Amino acid sequence: MIFIKFMGGLLIVLSTTLMGFYYGKKYSSRLNNLIYMEQCIKILETEIVYGAVPLPEALVNVYNKGNKKVSFVFKEIKDHLLANRGGDVLDSFSYVINSLKEKLNFKKEDIEMLISLGRVLGSSDREDQEKNFKFVLSQIAILEGEAKMERDKNEKMFKNLGILTGLTIVIILI
Questions:
Q1: Cβ-count burial 62-95 (b if 16+ within 10 Å, e if not)
Q2: Measured between alpha carbons, how far is residue 42 from residues 76, 91, 137, 140, 151 in Å?
Q3: pTM higher than 0.85, yes or no?
Q4: How far is the C-alpha of 51 from the C-alpha of 70, rounded, in Å?
Q5: d(Cα 96, Cα 168) in Å, to the nearest integer?
Q6: Which of 54-58, 99-103, 122-126 has the lowest mean pLDDT?
Q7: Fewest C-beta in 10 Å: which of 25, 128, 170, 174?
Q8: DSSP labels, the chain
Q9: Cα four-point dihedral sign 117, 122, 123, 126
């Protein structure tokens, strides 16, 4: 009987601990993905502003050169852009919103930043494009700072909360 109680308690603590680590990891995942997104946007800036590469080809280059955890978004944008030749770039950027939320743990403001890039991409000359990229990159830097503060505050809390919740449940059941 004691062995069954011990195993049940261990399973409860283990499951709540894993839940805490899962929710805590979302915060560090968001920060890492923002950093990877910044690198991808820098690659896109280089391709468009300095290389004068057409947008679909530039998006493929970003997919190939960037971190695959994030750069798949640019391949999806390119595929949607080529499939809907009548649509504009903003439609293609809006198409990937669900991927950004679910796979990259992006918040609303992170998505808005990327959508704002889609609004201005290809709608002006190189100098204006360069200014737009600098603006988006400065926004990402601000979002990274916020994500780092959230991670520092919440990641450890969720991990500890998972362990303590499991221990509390076991104590109550004993």
A1: bbeebeeebbbbbbbbbbbbeeeeeeebbebbbb
A2: 18, 22, 8, 11, 24
A3: no
A4: 22
A5: 41
A6: 122-126
A7: 174
A8: -HHHHHHHHHHHHHHHHHHHHHHHHHHHHHHHHHHHHHHHHHHHHIIIIIT---HHHHHHHHHHHS-HHHHHHHHHHHHHHHH-TTS-HHHHHHHTHHHHHHHH---HHHHHHHHHHHHHTTSS-HHHHHHHHHHHHHHHHHHHHHHHHHHHHHHHHHHHHHHHHHHHHHHHH-
A9: positive
123-144 residue pLDDT tens:
777 788 888 889 989 999 999 9
Q: Tokens in use for 76?
A: 């999806």
